[in-house]
Design brief:
By secondary structure, the chain is mainly beta. Helix content is 0%, strand content 54%. The chain has no helices and eleven strands. The strands form two sheets. Strands 2, 4, 5, 6, 9, 10 and 11 form a seven-stranded mixed β-sheet that branches. A hairpin with a 6-residue loop joins strand 5 and strand 6. The radius of gyration is 14 Å and the shape is globular.
Length: 118
């Protein structure tokens, strides 16, 4: 069974940067290239929302308006890891961040907390 594990969260001041990682393990032959990759976040008292999506079928990357120009996604197939680079962080970015890999099946990580202080 595929497992996704996020890491890299923490406490940062507004204007700072963090890079989150999402590492896949547990299934031979798994590659993020076969999946649509998404990063989501959930703030206290709010619903989970999509941050960005790297689409397998459409071939593009789509960003929520709130993170455009600040967040980017990348992947390292050799390490079976995707990254979320977050720059110019704002207090409203505070949330638990989750990665997701989906294509017929959907896999979620356990989440990593990001806290941005003002």
């Amino acid at each position: 069974e595929v497992q996704l594990v996020e890491s890299g969260g923490g406490l940062v001041q507004a204007g700072g940067s963090l890079r989150l990682s999402c590492a896949a393990s547990g299934a031979s032959g798994f590659t993020f290239d076969d999946y649509t990759i998404g990063w989501f976040r959930q703030a206290p008292g709010k619903e989970r929302e999509g941050v960005l999506c790297m689409s397998k079928s459409a071939g593009g990357t789509y960003y929520a308006d709130s993170v455009k120009g600040r967040f980017t996604i990348s992947k390292d197939n050799a390490k079976n890891t995707v990254y979320l680079q977050m720059n110019n962080l704002k207090p409203e970015d505070t949330a638990v961040y989750y990665c997701n890999a989906a294509y017929f099946r959907s896999y979620w990580g356990q989440g990593t907390q990001v806290t941005v202080s003002s």
